[in-house]
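Example 4.3 (complexes with small molecules)
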Amino acid sequence: MQKIHAAITAVGGYVPDYVMTNKELETIIDTTDEWIRTRTGIEERRILKGEGKGSSDIAVEAIKELMQKRGIGPEEVDMIICATTTPDMVFPATANVISDKLGMTNAFGYDVSAACSGFLFALTTGAQFIETGKYKKVIVVGVDKMSSILNYEDRTTCIIFGDGGGAVLLEPNDDGHGIIDSVLHSDGSGREFLHQKAGGSVKPATVETVMNREHFVYQEGKTVFKFAVKNMADVAATIMERNNLTPDDISWLVPHQANKRIIDATRERMGISEDKVMINIQRYGNTTNGTLPLCLWEWEKQLKKGDNVVLAAFGGGFTWGATYIKWAYDS
Ligand code: UT7
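Answer. The structure with oxa(dethia)-CoA bound is encoded below.
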């Protein structure tokens, strides 16, 4: 009997309407459109506006689209895993908020926190529940409202990130399609280079932490860049080797969208051409947990059954990984 693989059978995505251009950032901080484009590849990003709106609202829109495409109702979903760095609140899990908003009355769920690698970690976790044969429909959503933790006085971080997210449905597949392999890594010694200083149990919120702007993203960009370039490229090469994939075998690279220069380094290491790489960083910036599913969402129509797709990510923690998928359907 063929092994059961977890196959992606539908993709949904959502980005907020508001477009924040580099030109707009020029009016807020000391930066230029040219600097941002050349150093990162970003031209604009989306921002979720509106009182009382959080990551769950982005996720809900992505999942609605996914369910509509697949023709399923919320009560058919067994499980939801939400990868996010900007949960609606510290607790309960944003997965719970999403399932309540959508009426997923038969689903259980929880959040995964692995910064920019969160979607890959959650995807691998969700796949295990399908591969056991016990669950039939698992939704994995990667979403962030990064604007809620950005310091718009810090030009080194606020230019990079944006809001958005996407979701995939995992279902059992017994003809060799689906998630074939994953290589995941964490190294907590890198945590100081990219984190949020206050708001957790070590340093709960006080007037002082707020005044000191410690509830925002803190990043030592150069150091993170160095680790990202090496580790994302290495792990993408590892997944190719482990699965005997040559550059010609690869149909698509789906890279985390943190910096165009990191994406280029990964592509070069894999030995593949630019036309096989999904890149939308210019329009959305770094949506953290949202980048990978947003790429799948935008390229879904071009993906064909049997395509060899490699996803790769690197993020705070540090966390990094790669996943090899044999795509399961023609859109
Ligand atoms: O997704 C999670 C993982 N995160 C990443 O992978 C991000 C990794 N890091 C990066 O992508 C890059 O390090 C950044 C985009 C954050 C920064 O680019 P960089 O080429 O590493 O710039 P830098 O930090 O070395 O700064 C170079 C110069 C500095 O000026 P001086 O000291 O040379 O005079 C900065 O002050 O650029 C300056 N600078 C800016 N100038 C205009 C920094 N940010 C800006 C800005 N506009 N927004």
